[in-house]
Amino acid sequence: MSRDPIRHLAVPAIGSALLFTLLVAGGLLYTSFGGLAREGLVTQMFINAIIVLGIQIYVGNTGVLSIGHIGFGSIAGYAFAVCAISPKRKGGQIPDAPWNLAEVDLTPLESGMVAVGLTVIVAFVIGLGLARSGAQSGAVAATVITLALLFVVHEVARNWIDLTRGGKTGLSFSPLGNATLQGRGWVYILLAGSILVARLFRESRTGRLAQAAREDDLAARSMGISPPVQQMVALVLSVAVVSAGSALRVFELGSINPRLFFFDYTLLTLTMLIVGGRSSVSGALAGVVIITAGSELTRQLSGPNVEVAALDWLLREGLTDIFLGGAMLGFMILRPSGLFGDLEVDRWLMRFSRRREIEPDRPPVGAVSKGTLTARGVTVDFGGFRALDGVTIEASTDEIVGLIGPNGAGKTTLLNVVTGLVEPSSGSVEMGPQVLDDTPAHEVARAGVVRTFQNLRLFGGLTVRENLEASRLIAQRHRADRPQPPVAALVVQAGLWELRDRRASQLDYGNARRLELARAAAAAPDFLFLDEPTSGMGDAESVAMIEQVRAMASMVGAGVVVIDHDLNFITGICDRIYVLDQGLLIAAGTPEEVSTDPVVQAAYLGASAPANQ
Amino acid sequence: MIEVVQQVVDGLGRGGIYALIALGIALIFGVMHLVNFAHGELITVGAYTSYWLFNTDLDWWLVTPIVVVVAVLTSVVIEFVAFRWVRGASDFTMLMTSFGVHFVVQALFVMYVSANFRQFPRPGWIFNTVRVGGVSLEVFDLVVVSVTLASLLAVYWLLQRTLFGISLRAAAEDFDAARLMGIRSNRVIRGAFALSGLLAGVAAVFWLMRSGQASPTAGLTPMLKGVLAALIGGLGSLSGAVLGGIVLGLVEVLLISRLPGGIAGLTDGIVFLLIALLFVFRPQGLITVRHAERV
Lengths: 613, 295
Fold this sequence. Notes:
The complex is a heterodimer of chains A (613) and B (295).
Chain A: H1 5-32, H2 36-62, H3 69-84, H4 87-93, H5 108-132, H6 140-159, H7 161-164, E1 171-172, H8 185-203, H9 205-215, H10 217-222, H11 227-253, E2 255-256, H12 263-276, H13 281-302, H14 319-334, H15 347-354, E3 372-382, E4 385-396, E5 400-404, H16 411-418, E6 426-431, E7 434-435, H17 441-447, E8 449-451, H18 464-478, H19 487-493, H20 509-522, E9 527-531, H21 539-556, E10 559-563, H22 567-573, E11 576-581, E12 584-589, H23 591-596, H24 598-605
Parallel strand pairs in A: 5-10, 5-11, 8-9, 9-10
Antiparallel strand pairs in A: 1-2, 3-4, 3-6, 6-7, 11-12
Helix pairs in contact in A: 1-2, 1-8, 1-15, 2-8, 2-11, 2-12, 2-13, 3-5, 3-6, 3-11, 5-11, 8-11, 9-11, 9-18, 12-13, 12-14, 13-14, 18-19, 18-20, 19-20, 20-21, 21-22
Chain B: H1 2-32, H2 40-55, H3 60-81, H4 91-112, E1 118-119, E2 129-132, E3 135-138, H5 139-161, H6 163-173, H7 175-180, H8 185-211, E4 213-214, H9 220-232, H10 238-258, H11 267-281
Antiparallel strand pairs in B: 1-4, 2-3
């Protein structure tokens, strides 16, 4: 279901072929009307496209803004040049190169492989640093680390004269430093390859998990996704493509100097990526074409060949930069997701393949063995404030347990302790024989405890179906022994079949709540923890939610622990109820027992009941 | 010992400038969660303003207030033209918007002034030194340190004691809540930009006295240093930004004096490397801002 070969392999492959054909045909058409200059421009555009696609793989899928990919390009470019320039030429330029590099004599292909390999190793190290810094969509620390890379590489390239010949002259393949690229075979091969890699990565398991984490890092981790893993894969793949493109760029230009891979080129490539739409491969390519055309046009207009007296104030040096900066600024203000948003050219094919979809029946519930979850003696201190004080609760997979209490009672804190988001000062959490203490959130989810959030955390940019699939991809690998009803059946159960290809961010409140529940169920958990599933719902809706929760839980054979304020809902759904007040467990029992307990009444009504023990 | 004192004063002089820039960046981050990579453009604008004024033979004492006013106006205009429209957008969008502004302003200078450096004379007194108890100190460093201190005290007073300052802190704490309490968001944000422009203007004057040149990319280095300082201080914390600036200044002076000659050119590179390492291990900055203290 979530590994549909048509959707995730065939359609994107056809789309890639289509994109490649369009791009190359357009390029050939343009060059057929002009001379060598046009041919050079188109070749450069193809090479830029490879590099932009490389950046797209990382930035588009993870949402982390990297300003440093061109720094990786610089490493690859120098590695390529140092290996590929003939020893004779090197003897004249960098005779004192370390490690006898001046005598190295490799073919361009070998040099390219060395360049990619070396840069990928650097990327791996940087990736570890990014992961350590907690990289996620929009994280400033991650952006600064990549910015630092760009600057450090630039500084080293300028100062390591023995290896790079410094900033003034740089390294060149031939005495004149002119283009060396003979034939464009490699450009086409790498272009086709990078389109295919970027497009398939977007539909791959890793890619889709990365996109889920891009939309909401915390929700992703609570579903069992470990975003650093996907980010690392995306980074390494992305840098491999960027390095290959950069080596090609150096080869085509016939020379390299530190400025070639610095701020200006970063601006150019990022603008290309953003204008078309960074989340989409088609968008990235469209951006490359639009920006190349615009830059070329502004360059010609501001050149010496065009003289328009009335427009002299506009048509002058710097116009191209204004165009690039303006395009970046304009799109960020008016259309931040770019022209394409996250659409791909092959979307219509996808639609076609879905036309025959029929609404599935709900499958019978599989039998599962019973299990219990115990949080024992949990105490949590926030600074001097004791949020929970030695609370013990227990739940089993065949019951629905309620957790109630006035605001600030510690309900959500308890949930956070169980799901690994808050570390308790003392106490432990056990599920059967398994101890869940000191377990990170994504491991807790993989062990079988999955939650929803009080303030709704969906993967807003993904569709309803994709939300469930992200969760299911984890379940397939880590929860294989549990019943996993088809994603489509869960969609139907949540009443979202008609809306299955709608973005989660477009759903209304009730639908969004049901989607979050279904997404948690799709993770095939032993226990579902629901944090105020009816908050903000009307009476009728919250009564309907009772059936909804029961049905979802029984489809995956999970026990439920639910926090809520709505007493109708709680007494209607729960087999047992725990009552918390000011961090203490003050009562436990069936709904009837609890609702008649004088201590509970006192806590809720603050009335003239006996004082708290 | 004497050498150490000299270096510390030198570091404070550098760090003071960074602190002024970082404070402006932290202020804006506080009110709209934007890391302003276009902050350096205020310094570029200041640089060209001084260059033009110098050619009219104006004295430094008169140039300074004009540069500051121009920086304030530029800051407010940039807010009006660009940042106003991306308020509340995703962090990604805001980051890219500030890069966009950075590149557009830079390109405007290339178009309408020149892509080349413009030199202008610096006042003679900045090279003077005074001897205090056997230690010779640059007058310039002392001026920077005292003006920075005075500016910081003034900002502190403004934020703690005036209605505007209190609104600004309230908006930085919780923008929506502040609006519901009747604080006018436009005015507060414009005020934050004006204030950050003011600080950048003062920093620009010092920066230019040291470098003595204007170019379209003049603001790049000070902006980066300011952003780094603000990040070291844990973004959004005003006292953290100041501390971050001072730390950065001291570290730089230390590196310059201790690095062997062969790699002295790499000072900036090493600073970046250190910062990157800092963010790897402490992404929240050196100072962990307790929420109640956030400004």
